[in-house]
Structures are given as C-alpha cells and as structure tokens.
Amino acid sequence: MTRVEIDKNIFKLLEGDTRALSRLITQLDDKEKLPYIIQKVYPRRTDSHVIGITGAPGAGKSTISDKLIKLYRKEGKKVAVIAVDPTSPFSHGAILGDRIRLQNHSTDEKVFIRSMASRGHLGGLAPQTNDTITLMSAAGYDIIFLETVGVGQSEVEIIKFADTVCLLLTPSSGDSVQVMKAGIMEIGDVFVINKSDRPGSDKIEAEIELLWQLNDNKKDFKPQIIKTIANKNKGMNKVKLALAEHFQYMKDSGQLVEKRKQRIENEIMNIVHNSLLEKINARYFDEEVIAKIVDKIYNNNTDPFTIAEKIIERISQ
User: Fold this and answer.
1) Do 85 and 115 meet the contact criterion of CB atoms below 8 Å apart?
2) How far apart are the C-alpha atoms of 5 and 140, rounded to whole Å?
3) 191 in Cβ contact with 157 (< 8 Å)
C-alpha cells in the first residue's frame, strides 16, 4: 500500500469506514508504514473507553464480551473488539476462535471485531495492540474491548492499555487462588464470578473480599464483585453499570488523565527500546560472530557477562 493509498484509507477511517480500519490494522505489521500511519491518526483519537477482559481459559471472556456488546449497542454505542488468540510455538499459526464466537455481530456495521495472534508475546496481548487501539479510537468507537489470550497468570500487561480491567473468575476451577496469588488480583477494577450457578461461587467472592482487605496496595476505588451466568444473560446489566461507574470515577478523580499519560510514556519508551535493540542486533549480532562467541562460552573460555560488558562498551563508544 502506497502513502497515497494509506492517506485515502485514513480519510475513510475517520468517517467510520470499517474496511479502511481493517486495511490499516493490517499495515501496522509493516515497520516502514507503521510510524506514518500513527503520526497521521494519533491527533484524531476520541475518548473511547478501553475495557480489558481477562481471566483464565474457559472463564467465559468471549461470552461476556458478546453480551456486553448487545447491551452497548442498545444504547447506540459503537463497539470494537480486539480478541487476542495464542500463537502456536510450532506452526506459528493461531486459531482465531474469538472471531468465531462473536459472529452474532458480524452483520452489525457499528461493531468491529479484530482477532489478533499473540505471536508469542508475553502478557496475553498482541504486539500491535496499542496501535490498533489508536486506530479504533480515531474511527470513533465509543467502547473498545481488549480480550486477552487467557493464559491465566501472566496477563498483567493489560493494565498498561485498558482504562478499566474486568477480571473473570469461575467457581470450582481449581486455580482461582493461584491466579489471585500471582498478583493479577491487583489489576482488577471489576471482578466477575462467571458461571456462578456452580458450587463455590460464594467461596470465591469471600476470597476476593478478604484478599482486597489484606492488600496493602489496594486502590481508593473498591472494585465491585458481580456474579454472572453469562450464557443465560444473568448479571450482565450489573457488569455494564460497574464498568461505567469505574470509568466515571477515573475521570472525576483525575486518574484517567494520569493513566493515559503513563501509557504515552510507556509507548515512547517501547518505540525507543525496540528501535535501539533492532539497530544493536543488526550491528553487533551477526550470526557467524555470535556462533563463535557461543562456542567460546560453551567451552568455558569466557562467560556471558564478560561478553555482554564488551558489547556494551563498544556501543557506548
């Protein structure tokens, strides 16, 4: 896609054209085109509410998203979804199952669903998540759902991108306490106990309440704990209201501005870090040179720290 074609698609994007949005998201993988697209689109972002949906596999993230989309659409709001699916470490492919599960909204022009592969990226998200959110926001979507892979205990990265994080847990899953211990409890702004018709939902609710009380780093805003049976549409209105309540609190307290400024700072650091790393790899990590160095280390003629210090010294000079 040439710059002229990109400009045409950006113009259509700002008018809400979903095909243009889809084309531009695809172009984000091109390292040369990515900066140009974001530079053009960034000032046109709107006040979208980015909602993270996270939790262990099988918690019902896609079902929750599906029901919430219907509720927001009844209010006339435009909704976009980034559904991240895991990438196979063997074939490097991804089964984009979330797009299949959200097919109920495929004919709605005001709903845009994009499945993205994690490509081995840690934290349950895809590498181009932030840039995709930027495009969706510029396209005028009121609500942007960010649905993570569902790896369970490493999804804390979502807090960097979402204004509100909805953490899903299920009774009798056997790993709910482990997920809580992993620090993921601290990122939840709304706790949803889905499949609450199963035994053990009251126990999980009590555990969440206790852990929140014992948390020395607990927030000023106390997260709501809501029981749902998403596939029967029970409790979903309460979830939507809780999400709106948290978003309003963030606005009124000034924390939303601070959080978004922190997001921009992180974005700058990531761009600089990735650019420098790419240049360093190209200049100092030639395959033949590295192979010789690895052989030396393997044969105990040197060690990784000594080699690393020499490389850093050369870069500094």
Assistant:
1) yes
2) 21
3) no
Mean pLDDT in residue range 163-180: 73
Q: Are 148 and 84 in contact (CB under 8 A)?
A: yes
At residue 60, does pLDDT exceed 80? yes
* Total length of the chain: 317
What is the pTM assigned to this prediction? 0.85
Q: Strands 111-117 and 79-85: what pairing? A: parallel
The whole-angstrom separation of Cα 131 and Cα 136 is 9
Write out the two tokens for 264: 């921009």
Give just the sign of the alpha carbon dihedral 5, 11, 16, 21: positive
Confidence of residue 67 (pLDDT cuts 50, 70, 90): very high
